[in-house]
Amino acid sequence: MRKVVIMMLLSLGITLTASAQSKNEKIVIQTSAVCEMCKTNIEGALNKLEGVKGAYLDLKTMAVTVRYDATTLNAQNIIAAITLAGYDANEVPADEAAYENLHSCCKKDVVH
Predict the structure, then answer these.
(1) In the beta sheet, which residues pair with residue 54?
(2) Spatial contact of 83 and 92, defined as CB atoms under 8 Å apart
(3) pLDDT in tens, 73-87
(4) pLDDT at residue 2, as a whole number
(5) Residue of 3, 9, 41, 71 with fewest CB within 10 Å of its CB?
(6) pLDDT, tens digit, 9 for 90 and up, residues 6-24
(7) Are 52 and 81 in contact (CB under 8 A)?
(8) Measuring CA to CA, how many Å separate 2 from each of 9, 14, 26?
(9) Would you state the pLDDT for residue 6?
């Protein structure tokens, strides 16, 4: 009987551990990034989010790839972080106040 109880407790522990594991996802978001400072700003804003495993912005394509824990975070949270940093994210425009605070080299309307 004691062995049965121990086995049941172990089984329950394994089940609880498995259900608490993270669900890793990857998303690619088009941004309005134009320079290295933009890259630093966007990657920095994303890497501060709880649940982000990593963020990499490719300046040639202006797309950021984000690996994240979907049990903690969702695509809307990631897009919101990018727009609040002052950049467009997919079809969502940048927060106006944040965009105005960007360095001049980071503004999409400036000729580079």
Answers:
(1) 67
(2) yes
(3) 999 999 999 999 999
(4) 57
(5) 3
(6) 545 445 455 444 455 779 9
(7) no
(8) 11, 18, 45
(9) 52
User: Nearest to residue 11, comparing CAs of 53, 19, 92?
Assistant: 19
Angle between helical axes of 75-84 and 36-47 (0-180°, round to 10): 130
Burial status of residue 5 (CB atoms within 10 A of its CB: 0-12, 13-18, 19 or more): exposed
What is the distance between the alpha carbons of residues 84 and 50, in angstroms, rounded to a whole number? 16
Helices (H) and strands (E) in the chain, counts: 4, 3
How many Å apart are CA 46 and CA 82, to the nearest integer? 7
Of 110, 68, 59, 108, residue with least CA distance to 88: 108
Q: Which domains does the chain have, with CATH numbers?
A: 22-106 (3.30.70.100)
Query: Percent helix, strand, coil in the chain (nearest 5)?
Result: 45, 20, 35
